[in-house]
Automatic annotation (TrEMBL):
It comes from the Bacteria. Residues 7-211 form the NAD-dependent epimerase/dehydratase domain. This is Nucleoside-diphosphate-sugar epimerase. It comes from Acetoanaerobium noterae.
Length: 311
């Protein structure tokens, strides 16, 4: 472990923070990379990963690089910026001879409905524009590994939730509204099961993958808690908040109309297949490889998330 430098790109994001916490727990040397924010108590470099020179400067000296950044939720921005960022980070890691650990999501799988459950070998014919971009950048990284340019590993997260995570669907649609006395709203059927990843588990899992030589060149589904319906999730939130709400379904025609005027709603509409069908991610590969890894129970994770916003 001596001489290692772990560089976290997107260090103040939901999962980037958890990666840093795990690295700190393991007493590893850390560098945080952000466009403008600074991580207290940790060497922080400000860099725009769209610029190759800045990406190279940020990654210089690294042994392990965690690509955990998030871009605005826009299919157009993803299409324009993600391939450039991935190319710059791969090239910078190649130059530094650093290993690259990529936090990915599930969007590249398709067409819908997905297999129940779906694993890392699922068909990759995405139905969404954002999914097509995710497939492109995933392929870029795997090809770079196969060609010997970098040693890389991909950790794929389900929709995540956790302390202070404001971009989680469980916050936007449920907790945020319930905290101000409003009923939660669901984009899809409230009795369809779905899996979720806890951000602190994601951070621990990415570092676990990074430090195991045998994981590289592979794709791994990061661990999830048990599959739950929206109705079951609202029951758990009610239990923590001592409320008695029920989720209301937003009619699709209303979402389509709203999408005309509200860009973020338009971006969500192409992903609604995730709410229309059972969406259960298989994390068996990770659990078998790391049998001692403790996955946070949903009841514990959602309580921590709610309490973080109460504080």
């Amino acid at each position: 472990m001596n001489g290692e430098l772990h560089v976290v790109l997107g260090a103040t994001g939901s999962v980037g923070k958890s990666v840093i916490e795990e690295l700190q727990a393991r007493k590893l040397k850390i560098r945080a990379v952000e466009r403008s924010k600074t991580v207290k108590g940790i060497e922080t470099i400000h860099a725009d990963l769209l610029d190759f020179d800045q990406a190279t400067y940020a990654i210089t000296g690294a042994t392990h690089v965690y690509l955990c950044i998030g871009l605005p939720y826009s299919a157009l921005i993803w299409k324009e910026q993600w391939p450039l960022i991935m190319n710059n980070v791969i090239s910078a890691c190649e130059k530094a001879e650093a290993r690259l650990i990529f936090l990915d999501n599930m969007y590249l799988y398709g067409p819908a409905p997905l297999s129940v459950p779906f694993n890392e070998k699922h068909t990759r014919n995405p139905v969404s524009e954002k999914g097509k971009t995710r497939k492109i950048i995933s392929d870029m990284l795997l090809n770079a590994h196969e060609s010997g340019r970098v040693k890389a590993v991909i950790g794929r997260s389900a929709d995540f939730y956790g302390p202070n995570v404001i971009n989680s669907p469980l916050y936007i649609s449920f907790i945020e509204r319930m905290l101000i006395g409003k009923a939660p709203q669901s984009l899809g059927n409230t009795n369809i099961k779905h899996t979720y990843s806890y951000t602190n588990d994601n951070g621990r899992a990415l570092v676990t993958l990074a430090l195991d030589d045998s994981t590289y060149g592979q794709e791994w589904h990061l661990p999830v808690s048990r599959a739950m319906t929206i109705d079951e999730i609202v029951v758990e939130i009610n239990s923590v908040m001592n409320t008695n709400f029920k989720a209301t379904l937003i009619p699709r025609i209303i979402l389509k109309i709203m999408g005309i005027f509200i860009p973020n709603i338009k971006e969500v509409n192409e992903m609604l297949y995730q709410s229309d069908f059972i969406y259960i991610m298989n994390d068996e590969k990770f659990r078998k490889h790391f049998p001692d890894f403790k996955v946070t129970e949903f009841e514990i994770g959602i309580r921590e998330m709610i309490n973080s916003f109460k504080r």
